[in-house]
Amino acid sequence: MTTPRELFPRWQKRLLLAAALGLGLTGLGQMPIFSRYYVADIPGLWWLGDFRITAAAHLALAAVLLCVLSAMATAYLGAGRGRPGLTGPGKWRVGLYAAIAATGLLRVLQNGAAPPLGPGGVRYLDWGHLALAMGLLAFALGWGRKAATQPAVRAANGTSARESA
Q1: Poorest-pLDDT segment among 2-16, 62-76, 125-139, 148-162
Q2: Rounded Cα–Cα distance for residues 57 and 113 (Å)
Q3: CA 94 → CA 9, 89, 130, distances in Å?
Q4: Do 68 and 139 touch, CB atoms closer than 8 A?
Q5: Partners of residue 154 on adjacent β-strands
Q6: Predicted local confidence at residue 144, as pLDDT
Q7: CA distances from 154 to 2, 42, 77, 150 (A)
Q8: Which of 23, 49, 60, 88 could be a cystine partner for 35, CB 3.0 to 4.6 Å?
Q9: Alpha helix positions (H), 30-87
């Protein structure tokens, strides 16, 4: 049986974390809070107050995040029957990342030539995207941290590594 450490190299997890943190920072930059609260006036952080720079960085980091998530999903599905089962926190993490990616892709399509949603729908889409990102943050700080301290490996028969040892 393949372990999660074998499936997902450390550099991949660190790149995922860096992209997620960068997306959080540049996502907050989509709202004018950095200029409003003078964060952009701190030397070296002027770029946080420029919407065009934070928007471009957000899109670039989203592309990195999607590539890493695709590589991880490919490695997980490619492991076949020997892959570990997803735990409850793992299912939540996958669901939150998928929902954030879906709402982000829908937001990108909204900026195209044929927007799929009206003005009212865009408001709910933005709030949903923000709520999902906050949910992922809360999950990572709470439940995800707790799950990281416990073995998450589940055998194909549903027992954890701790139970089978």
Answers
A1: 148-162
A2: 22
A3: 17, 9, 17
A4: no
A5: 160
A6: 63
A7: 10, 47, 15, 12
A8: 49
A9: 33-36, 51-78
Rounded CA gap, 122 and 15, in Å? 30
In whole angstroms, give the CA distance from residue 133 to residue 155. Answer: 30
**Sign of the C-alpha dihedral computed for residues 97, 135, 64 and 17 taken in this order:** negative
pLDDT in tens, 30-84: 888 999 999 999 999 999 999 999 999 999 999 999 999 999 999 988 888 888 8
Alpha helices (H) in 88-118, listed in sequence order: 88-110
pLDDT at 147 over 70: no
Residues comprising the chain, all counted: 165
Residue 49 identity (one-letter amino acid) = G
CA distance 159 to 163: 6
Q: Which tokens hold the place of 91?
A: 């299912």
